[in-house]
Amino acid sequence: MAEPTLTIVYFAWVREDVGRDEERIDRPSSDITVADLVAALAARGGGYAQALGDATKLRAALDQRFVPLETVIGEARELALFPPVTGG
Amino acid sequence: MKRVSIQPQDFDIAAELAALEALGGGGVASFTGVVRGEGGLIALELEHYPAMTQAQVDRIVEDALGRWPLLGVSVIHRFGRLEPGARIVFVGTASRHRTAALESCAFLIDWLKSHAPFWKKEHFGDGATAWVEARAEDDAKAKGWGG
Prior knowledge:
The complex is a heterodimer of chains A (88) and B (147). Chain A is built from 3 helices and 5 strands, in the order βαβααβββ. Chain A is α+β, with helices and mostly antiparallel strands and 88 residues long. Chain A has a single domain, classed as Beta-grasp domain (Ubiquitin-like (UB roll)), CATH 3.10.20.30. Chain A has a 5-stranded mixed sheet. In chain A, α1 runs antiparallel to α3 (46-52) and α2 packs antiparallel against α3. Chain B has a single domain, classed as Aldehyde Oxidoreductase, domain 3. In chain B, β7 (118-124) and β8 form a beta hairpin. In chain B, the strands form 2 sheets. A 4-stranded mixed sheet of chain B has the order 1-4-6-2, with helices on both faces. In chain B, strands 5-3-7-8 form a 4-stranded antiparallel sheet.
């Protein structure tokens, strides 16, 4: 049985624009993709629209694994949204 | 030997290299990344994804161990606020073969740049800040290793 909520964590300028580093939302239906959820979050407006309005600038991880934005969220517990990484 | 450390504090390169040399392979290669103080930069702030970073770097190291005959790999990546001249990252590899040591070291730093969940923010003397943008050429370098 999937958790009733999904945790979303944000990093770098996505975190700054959204204005928080983590939140929990009611679990979306199981066939929703990361891109679908990003669009729904961007529709909240304000910092969310600024951070998430252009999905081409975003990368994602589900349960701490990088995934393409077209990936179905399914029963993942944690979604991370962030810009392309710049380590090393 | 496999060592991965994600840490805020500095590290002792001589000790890291000595540990790799002690494996007896005869060949040790390393790369050290240092904060560049150009363009009025006063600090680089490294953010990471704590729940993911260690496991992801472990995967990258395992990948290197699967590709080259290595006796040892050490990866140290710092996070937090780092000033110009500070070490950011260390990659060290040990092997019986110099080609394996050198190539795997290059692979590891290329993959860390494009596959490890770190983000750099630049702080300048005039108070300005800017998130470092990923470079297409870094991505291309990582892709060049295949897989």
